[in-house]
Specification:
Elements lengths: L7 H11 L1 H4 L15 E15 L6 E18 L2 E14 L5 E12 L1 E4 L2 E3 L2 E3 L2 E6 L2 E11 L2 E6 L2 E19 L2 E4 L4 E12 L1
Antiparallel strand pairs: 1-2, 1-13, 2-3, 3-4, 4-7, 4-8, 5-6, 6-10, 7-9, 8-9, 9-11, 10-11, 11-12, 11-13
Length: 198
């Protein structure tokens, strides 16, 4: 999935966190986040709406793609959370079968407090995925890495944005009873994240 990045959310986060008045409002406290024994619920969202035109023959087509990755993790040590997550994605393109993906697997995140309301929340996951598109089905394992910059917008609630990298580790496809190895795909993009903790 290709994502069209937008830098304005990052600038917004930095400006909001740099405001001393806002930084001191209420529980400023990324320092309260990441304590051992807390539960972390987070979700990452990526998406694309595009219209492509081929200059060679004048054909055009539209594509819509969205991926949602919720997870539940537990802080087993200060700032270190482990758990598991789910994955759902859908890609629709004119003239072709849509591609739907479901997956699940282990996940880990580490909280790096930057002071005030800001923190980095790098994470990794290793989901097992089932992909279907018309007569073709595939099972694959992906390695995902993300590094969102998060800001505490309210007590026990954060949101942010940051880069992600996804790479296929294994891919086995079937079509009409025939099996074959699928392609290795590497994806780089921007993901939007929300998170809460208790």
């Amino acid at each position: 999935m290709r994502l069209i990045p937008c830098l304005s959310p990052v600038l917004f986060l930095l400006l909001l966190a740099a405001d001393p008045a806002r930084a001191n409002e209420g529980p400023a406290a990324t320092s309260e986040f990441g304590q051992q024994g807390q539960f972390l619920v987070d979700a990452s969202l990526t998406g694309e709406i595009a219209h492509q035109t081929q200059s060679l023959n004048g054909q055009s087509r539209s594509q819509t793609a969205v991926a949602l990755s919720p997870s539940l993790l537990y802080f087993v040590a200060p700032n270190l959370a482990i758990g598991g997550g789910l994955l759902f994605s859908s890609v629709s393109q004119e003239g072709t079968d849509s591609v739907t993906t479901f997956g699940f697997g282990p996940a880990v995140r580490y909280n790096i407090s930057l002071g005030g309301r800001l923190s980095l929340l790098p994470g990794a996951s290793l989901p097992y995925e089932n992909v279907s598109s018309g007569p073709v089905t595939a099972t694959l394992v992906q390695a995902n890495i993300s590094v969102p910059l998060m800001i505490q917008a309210a007590p026990h609630f954060m949101f942010g944005v940051g880069p992600f990298l996804s790479r296929t580790l294994s891919n086995s496809a079937k079509s009409n009873g025939n099996s074959a190895d699928g392609p290795t795909v590497t994806t780089v993009g921007i993901a939007f994240s929300i998170a809460g903790w208790i």
